[in-house]
Design brief:
With about 500 residues, the chain is of the alpha+beta class. It is about 25% helix and about 25% strand. It is built from 12 helices and 26 strands. The protein has a 6-stranded mixed β-sheet, sandwiched between helices. A 4-stranded antiparallel β-sheet has the order 13-15-11-16. Strands 6-7-20 form a 3-stranded antiparallel β-sheet, with no helix packed on it. Helix 10 (about 350-360) crosses helix 12. The chain is globular, with a radius of gyration of 25 Å.
Length: about 500
């Protein structure tokens, strides 16, 4: 995938550098080579701002037997949606930005901005090696970058576009309880020993109450107060509770209003229990008392929460609960992974440009949203480069990133272009050739002499999509009406 991405950028005329990140040692001592990071550069006009796009082409593992309707690694179209692992996270969005540049090239128009690309292949594994590379390139590759754009998340709804200005962090914890060196028979030892799993369940049960409130003392102390300006952002957000329930497959949420749901999803910390290692979890029954069990949970922390303080609060709470049980077992609490939250300024020129672009395309302002999950690269880029960073989501809320049947609308993989003759309202998209096959497809569109406008209508339903050439123009104040051509043919390939 890294070679394909590099070749695609080179075809645009970009200068491409594939940077070797070395290798990573696995727990068993095996060294695995890391995929390179692609640094691409297109345009060096000192009069233009420089926009850097970040994306990744690695994906989560997937198997058809996990519940996929199609082979997850064969791109399959069903009812206008393209199903396949990575369709929305993150190969499709990477291609969408490349298409935006291809549009200017095909129309023989000067780029209104200089463009840089950072494309990696280890995001799903924690972006190994990326932070070191960013630090090394900060005074070189990033020295003339003005803005950084990341398209690696989703809209809040299925229809209305959004801009993301914050994400929660993630502190992952292991809580280990050990009794002895071997498993024991429950008929021989049950009822006369302090069982590790019983201790662990009590510890996990102490973390959060039935309303979702975290019961660790002091955990909310650093959460910033909600300002009136931010409260107004929540009031204007378009959010359908029933649609969100349908997308998630659950019957009931902990809260009943839009504002409460969004505040607890983005604005306040949450604690989730993920599993127990060491306990019997296969079909049937096994009457053993496990000698050692490890509970796994995480806290999604919000801005102003310090990871070091959070860890100390968790350890002190669990040690206090454990001591009150008077158990002779051994307790060990660790935090193997900690990612900090990220927050941007919605009044930054970057967000204002994106807002104008979306308003031009959709005829309405975007929702300004946060992301309840963690996007470490956003904070990484912001902290190291000290540049303006924006998250510009492409996929719809029901795209199913990381889930079975991940998809994206086929039209989201194009720069969505409709034309109308000056003074007319019709949009004559003329398909001249269409070809599709397993794993790839190509569509060719021919446009007569029409002024370029950004919208898209599907045959079965009206749909609106973000158009990146408008965003690029908006960065530099170029009027979108100036984008016109007498005849243009555009080809796009997904592999």
């Amino acid at each position: 995938m890294m070679v394909l991405a590099a070749d695609r950028l080179a075809a645009l005329g970009a200068t491409v550098n594939s940077v070797n990140l070395g290798s990573h040692q696995l727990p068993d001592g095996q060294d695995l080579p890391l995929p390179p990071v692609i640094l691409g550069e297109l345009g060096k006009d000192p009069q233009n701002p420089t926009v850097c796009f970040y994306g990744h082409v690695d994906v989560q593992p997937a198997k058809k037997e996990d519940g996929w309707k199609t082979d997850p690694y064969t791109l399959t179209e069903i009812d206008g949606n393209l199903y396949g692992r990575g369709a929305t996270d993150n190969k499709g969005p990477v291609l969408a930005w490349i298409n935006a540049v291809e549009t200017f090239r095909a129309l023989k128009l000067a780029m209104p901005v200089n463009f840089k690309f950072v494309i990696e292949g280890m995001e799903e594994a924690g972006s190994l090696g990326l932070e070191k590379l960013l630090k090394e390139e900060n005074q070189c590759f990033f020295s003339d970058v003005d803005y950084i754009v990341i398209s690696d998340n989703l809209w809040l709804s299925n229809k209305k576009p959004a801009l993301t200005y914050g994400s929660r962090g993630n502190a992952c914890f292991f809580v280990e309880v050990e009794c002895g060196g071997k498993d024991l028979h429950s008929g021989t030892f049950g009822g006369i020993i302090h069982e590790p799993l019983t201790d662990l369940i009590a510890l996990l049960d102490s973390l959060v109450d039935p309303t979702g409130h975290i019961q660790i003392p002091g955990i909310y102390d650093s959460v910033a107060a909600l300002t009136e300006e931010e409260r107004k952002l929540y009031e204007s957000i378009e959010f359908d509770l029933e649609e969100h329930k349908k997308n998630s497959g659950v019957k009931k949420f902990l809260y009943g209003t839009k504002e409460e749901i969004l505040l607890h999803l983005w604005r306040y910390p949450s604690l989730s229990i993920h599993g127990i290692e060491g306990a019997f979890n296969e079909p049937g029954i096994k009457t053993v008392i496990p000698a050692k069990v490890i509970g796994k949970f995480s806290i999604r922390q919000v801005p102003h929460m310090d990871l070091t303080v959070v860890k100390q609060q968790v350890v002190e709470h669990l040690e206090g609960v454990f001591s009150r049980r008077n158990s002779p077992n051994k307790l060990k609490v660790s935090m193997p992974l900690g990612a900090k939250p990220w927050l941007a300024d919605v009044n930054d020129p970057l967000y204002k440009a994106a807002r104008r672009a979306i308003k031009k395309v959709f005829g309405e302002d975007p929702d300004f949203i946060r992301d309840g999950s963690t996007v470490p690269v956003a904070r990484m880029f912001q902290t190291i480069t000290q540049k303006s960073v924006m998250m510009f989501p492409i996929g719809a809320a029901d795209d199913g990133e990381h889930s079975q049947n991940e998809k994206i609308s086929r039209f989201l993989l194009f720069v969505h272009l409709c034309y109308k003759r000056r003074g007319e309202n019709r949009s004559p998209l003329v398909p001249t050739n269409k070809h599709s096959q397993m794993g790839s497809f190509a569509v060719h569109w021919t446009f007569p002499n029409y002024c370029l406008w950004q919208t898209c209508c599907c045959a079965k339903q009206k749909a609106k999509f973000p158009t990146y050439c408008v965003l690029l123009c908006t960065f530099h104040g170029v009027p979108t009406q100036s984008l016109s051509t007498s005849h243009w043919q555009f080809s796009f390939y997904y592999q």
